[in-house]
Amino acid sequence: MPRPILATIHSAALSHNLARVRVAAPDARVWAVVKANAYGHGIERVFDALRSADGFALLDLAEAQRLRALDWRGPILLLEGCFEARDLELCSRLGLWHAIHCNEQIDRLAAHKTQLPHHVFLKMNSGMNRLGFTPERFRAAWTRLNALPQVDQISLMTHFSDADGPRGIEAQLQAFESVTHDLPGERTLSNSAATLRHGAVLDGRSDWVRPGIVLYGSAPDFPEHNVAHWGLQPTMTLSSRIIGLQQLRAGDSVGYGSSFVAEAPLRIGVVACGYADGYPRHCSTGTPVLVGGVRSRMVGRVSMDMITVDLSALPQAGMGSEVTLWGQSTTGAVLSIDEVAQAAGTVGYELMCAVAARVPFVLA
Asked: Which regions in the chain score pLDDT beneath 50?
């Protein structure tokens, strides 16, 4: 039989989380962000559950082609725009909308020969300081684009750096609106955190919202708020089974480096999951797991192919028992991916995207 590790994608949870976004932004249209292969879930696996979105947003032309191959005829937005002049031809052919964040992209568009003018999203750097025109240069870029016959519509966008924290969005929102208040075009401002945390402030100001991580059942402002607070459901479960048992005596150690030493007799289970499967190596003793739906902990170091878990309070657990590394167990118990990511010193985004190719996926 195959190794028991498995990643399960929950379609109903994806649909639920999309509906949750619509409640938070009832007057806005929704870009379902499916970059990074739908945050590691697989574009083809999430498509049916998210196809009620008003559009899809991503980075790669190849991923846009996959959406068109699924017979999606609605809007697709390239969040970083085109990287080369020849990309514009594919945008014309596939009917893609694309971001403009630098003068070089405007230059390429001006030299592009097309009979189908483009819908572009002019991006302001309102304080994130990654991509976009500064407020001082934004109107000049808009004027250049507006004069091009290659451009049909200009929408306006920015990205909040601190929507998930105490600094909030006020300074960036003021920078954006002070420059764009009299410019035509739709606006897209809100990422996941802004949509959930600042929806009342942004109501009527953001024609499109761009939810990413919330669609996939992770809280954008964890640990201040968890998924239960936001009414989200986990969309990915990483599960495996116990493939070995050991009985430790007081003073016995577990795994490489003997980093965990039992203080008293302890029964442990060996689980078929390791960092080669995408489980974070930086997880250490105390990282939560579910064994048969009951909360327990990992002990020792993560190996390439195995971890060890504490069974001292789980006499019913044994060979073949289900272990949920994150997500929802078959008993209905949930272990948030955010908790596991916190133990690894990272965020749920990384764990979703890092599940290894050797792990089989199923759609539920």
From this structure: none
Catalytic residue, from 113, 216, 256, 279: name it.
256
Looking only at the bridges linking them, the beta strands covering 236-248 and 266-271 are: antiparallel
Per the listing, tokens 């991006």 go with: 123
Active site residue 279: no
- Please identify which of the residues 35, 123, 216, 275 carries the catalytic annotation: 35
Give the position of tokens 């459901």.
233
Q: Is the dihedral of CA 110, 111, 116, 121 positive or negative?
A: negative
Rounded Cα distance, 283 and 301, in Å? 7
Residue (of 113, 67, 63) closest to 88 by Cα position = 113
Q: Tokens 């870029």 appear where? A: 141
The CATH architecture one would assign to domain 236-363 is Beta Barrel (2.40)
Does the annotation count 35 as an active-site position? yes
pTM greater than 0.70: yes
Between CA 364 and CA 348 the distance in angstroms is: 21
Are 98 and 81 within 8 A, CB to CB? yes
| Residue whose entry in the numeric block shows the structure tokens 């909360």 | 295
According to CATH, the topology of domain 11-220 is: TIM Barrel (3.20.20)
* Residue 1 pLDDT: 75
- What's phi and psi for 361, nearest 5 deg? -110, 145
Phi and psi at residue 333, in whole multiples of 5°?
-65, 145
